Amino acid sequence: MAVTLADVAARARVSPATVSRVLSGKYPVAEPTRARVLRAVDELEYVANGPASALAAATSDLVGIVVADIADPFFGILAGAVQSEISAAGRAGGAGEKLPVVCSTGGRTERELTCLTLLQRQRAAAVVVAGGGAERPEDAAAVAAKLARLAASGTRVVLCGRPPVADAVTLAFDHRGGARRLTEHLLSLGHRRFGYVAGPPGRTTTGDRLAGHRAALAAAGVGHSARLVLHGPYDRASGYAATVELLRRDPGLTAVVAANDTVALGVCAALRDQGRRVPGDVSVAGFDDLPFSRDAAPALTTVRLPLREAGARAGRLALGREERPPGGVATVRGELVARASTAPPRPQGGDADRANRLTPIT
Amino acid sequence: MAVTLADVAARARVSPATVSRVLSGKYPVAEPTRARVLRAVDELEYVANGPASALAAATSDLVGIVVADIADPFFGILAGAVQSEISAAGRAGGAGEKLPVVCSTGGRTERELTCLTLLQRQRAAAVVVAGGGAERPEDAAAVAAKLARLAASGTRVVLCGRPPVADAVTLAFDHRGGARRLTEHLLSLGHRRFGYVAGPPGRTTTGDRLAGHRAALAAAGVGHSARLVLHGPYDRASGYAATVELLRRDPGLTAVVAANDTVALGVCAALRDQGRRVPGDVSVAGFDDLPFSRDAAPALTTVRLPLREAGARAGRLALGREERPPGGVATVRGELVARASTAPPRPQGGDADRANRLTPIT
DNA sequence: TTGAAAGCGTTACCAA
DNA sequence: TTGGTAACGCTTTCAA
Which residue, of A95, A116, B97, B147, is most buried by count of CB atoms within 10 Å of its CB? Predict the structure, then answer.
């Protein structure tokens, strides 16, 4: 079978314990001995048995990164940042190097629990849970309980982009504030009739962004019908279909806010197919400002979350290389990116009046 | 500490061996006993110790997916497809459920070897290596040797999108054929002066696509200068910068072929910024046809690789749920997607002549 | 600074 | 159908 520690020990004429000490690197070993061991390791092409180490040490060097969907660039960027932060630490391939592993859940609580169980089974050293969570109390509680058990069993838990839970370190995203500023911006341009294409129902990200949007409207005294809020997955097709329906429900809307940039692309496409100029007749806003959106929809107004920075920080927190923020929670804010200031085409009397009472924000 | 098999056994008043059998599910156990064990598992919230199982069974339930960059939607889609195929098998969270783990290498051989070592250390059940490999013989040999060792140690190895190695099961992508058809298409429209923005140097994907392009040009008797081939990473900035330089070197080019769609977006942006209409003055072609490209560059001509299907198939091969293709190698071909048939603006005499001798393809 | 040996929690073989 | 019990390969006291 495979080469074992004992084989290396025999070859280097030392005890297995010594080899272990050399490899772990955190025990004093005489230099000549050390060299002999390392040479034996090389000659034998020894690769440690991870499971055996994990069993003996009661912790593995796996770091889990749980996301909704790796095919979604939002999570791809986030997960990539976490990974590279983790891989950057520790000598390449050396013992103690962490193996970042990405799991995707499809945004389903059930699958989320499964992933966490799988990581718990692996005795992962840390777990970064990225993206929004379930809003339903039972679901949220189930995940919280699972995370608590994970933490209790020695796994470091870091939340990134979801509400804090118990005492897990959390990097919360300010979706609410971002959506609010986004909507305030559109209001300041004079828009009064909004459509909103929301993300999947029952998820905190969806709810938070929507809440921010509604808060801005309420603060401006602009009414908003629930009929003009449509939910769907974070994809282009959802934006397209929702927009067709929104226009049917209110042909006079002048702005559409989308759950994210991908959805916004579908919105733009549908608007054009329905004969509206974008921007011009209708302004479209999105979220996240992913790299391609500037090409796909140059006039999009979005909120840019510093995904790379957040991911890197989450990675450091997972490794325990960065101090816990006060209270265990740090909030990451997005930046408003307004590429075109398109006022609505034909402002109506009453609305224009109200607009004058608004203080432009941003 | 954590609940162990022995705890469950005690509670269910059976031996540890029996609990193990119930959990593994592949041994006959009397129904009442089985029920008692499962109840104990539930009551105790027992979660098996993966490392211990892996040690005893000499194989873990990890399945590695090695990609160049998860932040790149190309790999995100591919990895996502592999993952969902793997997660679909096996009852959620049950014993024996595989844990698909994605690692990214940045397309660097060194990091690739590290990832493979890490997976070898974990005694992964299978490894799917996706995306092109190194062209340099030493590098290719090093990776091949590593893969051979992995395979020898019982890990199932599946290659996806890179040249076959020894006897690893391979899903090869026909980059060469795709690039060839793409170029033939542009030639059939009358284009004769091409710029080419290639991927990172020294990688098989880059080399294969370029080879296909050159083969098409050669077959058509169209000369091509190495000065009009520029290399860079698979990102937008690379396409932008390369295009500025290409136009400097040949202001009269009528078509630019890009390493992939993301690069093509940069090409389009640069062309516009340089005062060219796209399409119109210059036609742009890309690769991969990712979801956003139709919005970002509606007139792009691309080659669409069936990424989801390929990923799913790779997943099944990794699980041993799909038969090895004859010879161990199956080739995945891309589909030419031509959204606009833009002929060059001002065909030159001699070239137009030659164009007539071409048989239009596709 | 090094060695000996007792676990770590499963699996799998051999009996019963 | 079940139980007893060696491995599995490493880490980590405890001694020397």
Answer: A116
Last residue of a domain, one of A55, A74, A98: A55
Buried b or exposed e, range B107-140, using 16+ CB within 10 angstroms: bebebbbbbbbbbbbbbbbbbbbbbbbbbeeebb
Closest residue (CA to C1') to nucleotide C7 in the complex: A56
Kindly state whether residues A354 and A226 are assigned to the same domain: yes
In this predicted structure, what is the pLDDT of residue B333?
A: 96
CA B295 to chain centre: 23
- Number of domains within chain B: 3
Q: What is the token pair recorded at B157?
A: 């190895």
Instruction: List residues with CB under 7 Å of strand D.
Output: A 1-2, 4-6, 16-17, 20-21, 23-24, 46, 48-49, 52-53, 55-57, 95; B 13-18, 21, 27-30, 32-34, 52, 55-56, 58
B82 and B156 assigned to the same domain: yes
CB contacts, 8 Å: A110 with chain B: 92
Last residue of a domain, one of A55, A73, A93: A55
CATH code for position B38: 1.10.260.40
A54 neighbourhood in chain B, CB within 8 Å: 50-51
Exposure on the CB side of residue B255, measured as CA atoms within 13 A:
28
Q: Chain B: residue nearest A114 by CA? A: B93
Mutant choice from B99, B115, B116 vs A, greatest count of A C-beta within 10 A: B99
Which amino acid is present at B339? R
| Structural domain harbouring B342 | 175-301+338-358
**Domain harbouring B292, CATH code:** 3.40.50.2300
Q: Are strands B156-160 and B169-173 parallel, antiparallel or unpaired?
A: parallel
Spans of chain B below 50 pLDDT: 347-362
Give percent above pLDDT 90 in chain A. Answer: 79
Nucleotides on strand C with an atom closer than 7 A to protein CB?
Answer: 1-5, 7-13
**Is the domain of A164 the same as that of A181?**
no
Q: Are residues B120 and B9 in the same domain?
A: no
Residues B247 and B286 in one domain: yes
Choose among A343, A349, A351: nearest CA to A217. A351
User: What is the nearest CA distance from A271 to chain B, expressed in angstroms?
Assistant: 13
How many CB pairs lie under 8 A apart between chains A and B? 167
Average pLDDT over residues A60-66: 95
- Rounded to an integer, what distance in angstroms lies between the CA atom of residue A244 and that of residue A232? 13
d(CA A11, CA A360): 76
Same domain, A316 and A265: no
Does residue A205 lie within 7 Å of nucleic acid chain C, judged by its CB?
A: no
pTM for the model? 0.90
B131 and B28 together in one domain: no
Say if residue B134 is in the same domain as residue B73: yes
The amino acid sitting at B247 is: L
Q: Distances from the Cα of A187 to the Cαs of A127, A182, A351, in angstroms?
A: 40, 9, 10
Whole-number Å distance, CA B85 to C1' D1?
A: 35
- 3-state DSSP helix/strand/coil % of chain B, to nearest 5: 50, 15, 35
Q: Return the pLDDT at A344.
A: 72
Distance CA B18 to C1' C14 in A: 15
With CB atoms and an 8 Å threshold, state whether B117 touches A93. yes
pLDDT higher than 60, residue A28: yes
The model's confidence at residue A92, banded by pLDDT at 50, 70 and 90, is low
Shortest-distance nucleotide from A37 CA to C1': C2
CA distance A126 to A122: 11
